[in-house]
Amino acid sequence: MKGEVALRTHGNASSKYERHVLVCGGTGCTSSGSPKIIEELEKQFADKGLTDKVQIVKTGCFGLCERGPIMIVYPEGSFYSRVKVEEIPRIVDEHLIGGSPVKEFLYEETVVGDEIKSLDDTSFYKKQHRVALRNCGVINPENINEYIGRDGYEALGKVLTTMTPEDVIQTILDSGLRGRGGGGFPTGMKWKLARNIVPNADQKYVCCNADEGDPGAFMDRSVLEGDPHVVLEAMAIAGYAIGATQGYIYVRAEYPIAVERLNIAIKQARENGMLGKNIFGTDFCFDIDLRLGAGAFVCGEETALMTSIEGNRGEPRPRPPFPAEKGLFQKPTILNNVETYANIPQIILNGAQWFASMGTEKSKGTKVFALGGKIKNTGLVEVPMGTTLREVIEEIGGGIPNGKKFKAAQTGGPSGGCIDPSNFDIPIDYDNLIGIGSMMGSGGLIVMDEDNCMVDIAKFFLEFTVDESCGKCTPCRIGTKRMWEILDKITKGKGTLEDLDKLEELAYHIKANSLCGLGQTAPNPVLSTLRCFRDEYIAHVVDKKCPAGVCKDLLSFEIEKDKCIGCGMCAKQCPASAITRTDYIAPGKKLAAMEIDKTKCVKCGACIATCKFKAIIKK
Ligand SMILES: Cc1cc2nc3c(=O)[nH]c(=O)nc-3n(C[C@H](O)[C@H](O)[C@H](O)COP(=O)(O)O)c2cc1C
Ligand code: SF4
Ligand code: SF4
Ligand code: SF4
Ligand code: FES
Fold first, then answer.
1. Ligand 2, residues 313, 514, 520: which to mutate, most atoms within 8 A of Cβ?
2. Start-to-end CA span in the chain (Å)
3. What are 303-328's pLDDT values in tens digits?
4. Ligand 3 mean position, distance from CA 604 (Å)
5. Is the peptide bond before 165 cis (omega within 30 degrees of 0)?
6. Angle, to 10 degrees, between the axis of helix 219-226 and the axis of helix 338-350?
7. Does the predicted model carry a pTM greater than 0.90?
């Protein structure tokens, strides 16, 4: 089996199958129709006698989610994107039976004249380097043998048979790996503390944070969907390193595919002796259970997460004591993020130096980003730390669609901030992002163009925190609400210059006095937009204008009568019956122009979208 999977991407000389058809079964492609593609392939294979010749493999995310459903055929590596069920019979006949890829259905960047280029040469993949995502889109996550076929569980075997717990911790320390859940705390240091701080603890725990509540982020979900065993293996390694026998994965229930694949993986790992008693015939015993989170953002905070696993309401508690000393059930505990774990087996197998050779001086390795917003190639990318925002957005992401101008990128979700174009060429790493007033966060990267209003964006993130605040402490519970009210006032044209000062004062107070990271970082999107886009706030407050044309209360819609041909299409679309005909006939036109009654208009924008003659303007 190991050979079969290893051969899949490299040619199939000794494979028992002539070809492998990999279809993305990640959440994105599942919702854009990949189950129907698999169904049709199975039907065609049965009809055309291919079942024993071509293997269908349902994988995790390939990264280029915007192009889903995605399908790749090996050994050629032909990359079919936005696959339609109707295209399957031709792909089966011409490619799987006839041996010639159907060029017109391939991802266009892979077709150059008569040649078919490798996927690795396309702009989306060229600069990527997959460590945490190395198995996503390559293996069937529901089959442990496919994971083993890609060196899976070898690192655990190596650790248990040739390394002491101290060796493991030293390797992780030397690698320079820092937590990918947002804070960037050195993982080896965390493990070392948990091993040594209470030397005689009767019980310790290893937890995995798969809560991933940041708006726009789906990195952890994709790792769990595409490669669940990597997390199980890493947690077992962590268990050995700190002296724990039990692990918990805290995963949000809104991730049903991830939960299902984790359940399958845990069962298979137990059946194959990779979890449970005496793993690999050693004295080491370790098991993992799932705990489902109900989808509260604050439950991603480490102390709240542990309180929730204990069966209580997920509220943060003060630190110290830190979890390494008193964590889950008051026992020494480590908690790491999914992506942090996904790096561990490769570090053990390839060595600390291999990992430390990637990235920047203080941020080693790679980072997975969920690219979203106003960008051509939305999806999942993994790049070496130190790659610039420009490379990620313009080269990998394909730039901003519809010829619009880049305005800002938001990293770190509600805890982060906006980066303006002046910092486009800064290498992305933990410290650089903090230096420019944003932060890495877990890896959501939302791109904004000239049509985004930065005041509105700040309000959006603050609304999220107001909703998600657990309410335990006053600065966060009341302060964020007051900040939101001021922003709301500004977007409605009722703000004053004093409000901007009040916003800043409140922001610093909330940051300094909140109990947990949620409150301590909640004001960041406001502070960073105030710093980088202050003129936009001023325009709302002083000129009562929204330069991006987003804040409805500051907009008015008007028809330029000389451009209007009087076709009446806009009036048909208007839900408020606000558009009526005038007596005026523009020179050279046959019908009278229309006009908008501003007292009736609800500013929905339907008329602008309808008018082919660009006669309607938003002011
Ligand atoms: C409000 C809040 C939400 C968080 N949500 C997550 C999350 O969804 N996933 C995550 O890994 N870390 C999250 N964190 C960070 C965790 O508390 C913790 O630092 C992290 O899981 C540690 O793992 P790491 O060292 O591997 O990054 C959150 C922190 C705060 C304050
Ligand atoms: S800062 Fe906010 S989320 Fe954190 S404990 Fe206080 S009220 Fe709860
Ligand atoms: S759709 Fe445009 S051209 Fe037609 S009536 Fe409306 S404003 Fe005039
Ligand atoms: S913005 Fe909406 S409500 Fe206003 S005139 Fe246009 S279609 Fe009618
Ligand atoms: S979900 Fe299919 S490519 Fe991302």
1. 514
2. 64
3. 999 999 999 999 999 999 999 999 99
4. 16
5. no
6. 60
7. yes
